Protein 1
Amino acid sequence: RKEVEQDPGPFNVPEGATVAFNCTYSNSASQSFFWYRQDCRKEPKLLMSVYSSGNEDGRFTAQLNRASQYISLLIRDSKLSDSATYLCVVNSQISGAGSYQLTFGKGTKLSVIP
Amino acid sequence: DVKVTQSSRYLVKRTGEKVFLECVQDMDHENMFWYRQDPGLGLRLIYFSYDVKMKEKGDIPEGYSVSREKKERFSLILESASTNQTSMYLCASKRFPSGNTIYFGEGSWLTVV
């Protein structure tokens, strides 16, 4: 089983639509979670962290469900500028090493259409 | 403003050449990483480092080596470049041990012919 799984898409949505992405992770000891955004031929950049209580940043809402081991990203009122690939990232402690490992999903591609 | 700088953005090298990719960060981060990213395969970890002169293999270390002589600098070395190493290479850094945000450089696009 892959450690972090995402639907690769593409998700093609009209401007103004609401779109949701899910991501599942296999390591139940994972401790922190993030969504990164990557534009075409650019580096990934942090979009938002994901907290257990859920968190919102403008049009973006992230949720974490530890029991089912998935995180989600909801984008409301989609803009053309939201077109990008969204990467799910999971941070897990490496047993006995006192250090952490980041695992990236392969990303979900979003295209917002005029 | 945080900064991870990859000095070589676009390179074309011949098969068998030795290739150096340099990365410098100005955030005093302990952890540094090298990834490669290919269509359909996502980000794959090549090597990482927790401290100066320390290195650990990632998921795909074969054909690569690294060097970390100074805290701010992490170099990726392709000892003998091959065509299957044509890819985008991303350097990244983050604070130890559990710094939340990983910061990426802009990427180095390597073509091996």
Protein 2
Amino acid sequence: DAKTTQPPSMDCAEGRAANLPCNHSTISGNEYVYWYRQIHSQGPQYIIHGLKNNETNEMASLIITEDRKSSTLILPHATLRDTAVYYCIVPPQAGTALIFGKGTTLSVSS
Amino acid sequence: GAGVSQSPRYKVAKRGQDVALRCDPISGHVSLFWYQQALGQGPEFLTYFQNEAQLDKSGLPSDRFFAERPEGSVSTLKIQRTQQEDSAVYLCASSLSGQKHNYGYTFGSGTRLTVV
């Protein structure tokens, strides 16, 4: 299984870009990178996923390095509502379900 | 419905009591998952259904835990003879696709179980 490594916590000022890193050095060629977040007292929320190309949606952008060993989730203009735990997950090809790690706690302050 | 609905939102059980937690997935969603989340930890996988078939129950921590989805829609997670270590938030998720490698899930808000 491709395991991921994320910093335990990060801070960001409101209105600034939040760049959340993730290392997945053992990722294999067909494995995707998924990002979820979990706001306090809620269930996890899907954000974005990608294989090798950069991806963007209404919530965030995902930048994957050319060697695919790391990625960065970018929230372009963080708000207080973006304070949450962010999970970077590489689901195993032979697996059944998402396996969550400890994630990064992002604190956005005014 | 518009989202995944779980009930009750909170449950307090006395040690040794049986509990049943309900999950209403998004209508038409094929896949359904149960997770357990202890305080300060990430969600841990319990079990997976594709329609009414329980295809993976490898995460269930003991034989006191039982899940079912008899008609391929609503699911119930039952815990018999609850113990204090069962105290956690129980999360349900569903996804439209029954195919593997589709990991875009919709989660409910969970049921917080406290065993006293």
